[in-house]
TrEMBL record:
<dbReference type="InterPro" id="IPR036390">
    <property type="entry name" value="WH_DNA-bd_sf"/>
</dbReference>
<dbReference type="InterPro" id="IPR036388">
    <property type="entry name" value="WH-like_DNA-bd_sf"/>
</dbReference>
<dbReference type="InterPro" id="IPR011991">
    <property type="entry name" value="ArsR-like_HTH"/>
</dbReference>
<protein>
    <submittedName>
        <fullName>DNA-binding transcriptional ArsR family regulator</fullName>
    </submittedName>
</protein>
<dbReference type="InterPro" id="IPR001845">
    <property type="entry name" value="HTH_ArsR_DNA-bd_dom"/>
</dbReference>
<dbReference type="GO" id="GO:0003677">
    <property type="term" value="F:DNA binding"/>
</dbReference>
<dbReference type="Pfam" id="PF12840">
    <property type="entry name" value="HTH_20"/>
</dbReference>
<keyword id="KW-0238">DNA-binding</keyword>
<feature type="domain" description="HTH arsR-type">
    <location>
        <begin position="1"/>
        <end position="93"/>
    </location>
</feature>
Length: 119
């Protein structure tokens, strides 16, 4: 268990890999589509994808000449269970947090509105 947790947390430690996981929340993507928003080479993105795959957070499937990436939500299950043991996965009331910030800062907290903010 410890070795697989190490792989998951190591993979999640990098902001690029977390951003890739966020992209894959929407749908499966071709490697070139995953790479498009990042200012780095396709080879660098492929290395990040390899780390995510080794940690069990994504899978890759070759369809013809295109490699597709898919999020593997069960890959986070072990880490989630481990974190729950520390009480770190309790729900957060974001509305209450926003009210707290407004009280503490004395101004309206800068919270984006609209469909993107509802996610």
């Amino acid at each position: 268990m410890a070795a697989s947790l190490d792989l998951v947390f190591s993979a999640l430690a990098d902001p690029t890999r977390r951003a890739i996981l966020a992209l894959l929340l929407e749908d499966d993507m071709a490697v070139t589509d995953v790479a498009a928003p990042f200012d780095m080479s396709l080879a660098a993105i492929s290395k990040h994808l390899g780390v995510l795959a080794e940690a069990g957070l994504i899978s890759r499937d070759r369809r013809g000449r295109v490699t597709w990436c898919q999020l593997e939500p069960d890959g986070l299950r072990e880490a989630s269970v481990w974190m729950q043991g520390f009480g770190q996965m309790e729900g957060i009331d974001l509305d209450a947090f926003e009210r707290f910030l407004e009280r503490e800062l004395g101004t309206s907290a800068a919270v984006p509105e609209g469909p993107a903010a509802e996610g």
